[in-house]
Automatic annotation (TrEMBL):
One of its GO terms (molecular function) is oxidoreductase activity, acting on the CH-CH group of donors, NAD or NADP as acceptor. Residues 2-158 form the FAD-binding domain. InterPro entries: FAD-bd, FAD/NAD-bd_sf, Geranylgeranyl_Rdtase_fam, Geranylgeranyl_reductase. This is NAD(P)/FAD-dependent oxidoreductase.
Length: 389
């Protein structure tokens, strides 16, 4: 019997498996694909903080980014340059494989090409190349992605919103120091252009509906043509309860992607380490009751839960904005005093501080209140409006 079975060997699962193994627990990590990182379903843009949290070498780094250009289809534009590296463009397959390898080096056992197809009491039923194998584990950490089969097996509610994404790799000559964001290209979210190095970029977008049509319109701007088309799903809004029945849910399986960007590596890896700490406590006390497992939810909520709540408020506000509203807002944000704030306080992983500062600018507040008054008042309440220096 294993102490912990981790389902999924992406960044969240690998981080959980490694942390548990390093703490001395016996760990099995079950991965349905032949290798972690495939199929690729990520834009591969990680903040410096998120990349550092993965605790890997720089082998997966393709490019570094220091700023962004946010462009409206109607001509408004915001440009900011931090003059230092703010994010890494990575090869996600290499990143995931290195993290899984580190988990194995720490002592975790990895089963590739193996799917969890059922659960009976304390046993996981798996199927792989060698057929059915039953796994006994004292507890489970579910890191099995946005459509979590583990949540379905346990009858637990999942994320309330799912975004669909499409991305392609194509030849494109642009300044590799900056990403581009096109909010009007995807009415419910945004489109992006991420340089992967000299002469190439990832072009993609996310939305809740009409995504393929929107992508085809956006990609038509780039006549060189798209290659390596990939699709993916992003869950927004955490499941109502991220623990239960000897199981902890982490990363996309719990709906922990950031609603402001769609990225989930930072929150997923942090949640994985919180889950590992609770798993160690449970195994040491031989107590796997929901009362003890609840410590996991308290830990991640105290860490980044407020940012996810704010992010969902901002996501819903985004749904209320028309193309004209976005154009007006970008024109306001293009003020040099405001772009200086963005450079100083901007944070891909924790946007709350920047939002607080932006809301102290009368012209920004007036602009937002004009188009979405009730939603803004809720956001201000969430922020306990007042600026933390």
């Amino acid at each position: 019997m294993y102490d912990v079975a981790v389902v999924g060997a992406g960044p969240s699962g690998a981080a959980a498996a490694r942390a548990c193994a390093e703490a001395g627990l016996s760990v099995l990590c079950i991965e349905e694909h032949a290798a972690p990182g495939f199929p690729v379903q990520c834009a591969g843009l990680l903040s410096c903080r998120a990349f550092a949290g993965c605790e890997v070498s720089d082998r997966s780094v393709l490019n570094t980014v220091q700023g962004a250009r946010v462009v409206s289809d109607r001509g408004a534009e915001v440009f900011f340059d931090a003059q230092e590296t703010k994010a890494y463009v990575v090869d996600r397959a290499l990143l995931d494989q290195e993290m899984a390898g580190d988990a194995a080096c720490a002592g975790a056992e990895i089963w590739p090409k193996t799917a969890v197809v059922g659960r009976e009491g304390g046993r996981l039923i798996t199927r792989g190349a060698s057929g059915r194998r039953d796994v006994e584990a004292r507890m489970v950490i579910a890191a099995d992605g946005p459509r979590s089969g583990m949540a379905r097996m346990l009858g637990l509610a999942r994320a309330p919103v799912y975004l669909s994404g499409i991305q392609a790799d194509l030849p494109l000559d642009l300044d590799t120091r900056y990403v581009e964001v096109h909010p009007n290209a995807a009415p419910q979210f945004f489109a992006w252009v991420i340089p992967t190095g000299e002469g190439r970029a990832r072009v993609g977008l996310c939305g809740t509906g009409g995504v393929r049509e929107a992508f085809e319109r956006f990609a038509a701007r780039y006549p060189a043509g798209c290659t390596h088309l990939v699709t993916g799903t992003i869950p927004l809004g955490t499941m109502p309860r991220t623990y239960g029945q000897r199981t902890l849910f982490v990363g996309d399986a719990a709906g922990m992607a950031k609603p402001t960007s769609g990225g989930g590596v930072y929150t997923g890896v942090r949640a994985a380490r919180h889950a590992a700490a609770v798993a160690v406590s449970c195994c040491e006390a031989d107590d796997f009751s929901d009362r003890v497992l609840a410590a996991y939810e308290r830990r991640w909520q105290a860490d980044f839960g407020r940012e996810l709540t704010l992010g969902m408020r901002l996501f819903r506000l985004r749904q209320e904005l028309s193309a004209e509203n976005i154009d007006s807002l970008l024109s306001t944000l293009a003020d040099p005093d405001i772009t200086d704030l963005i450079v100083k306080y901007g944070d891909m992983d924790r946007p709350g501080r920047l939002i607080r500062h932006l809301m102290t600018k009368p012209k920004v507040l007036r602009n937002i209140v004009t188009v979405a008054g009730p939603s803004v008042r809720v956001i201000l309440k969430d922020l306990n409006f007042g600026v933390n220096k």
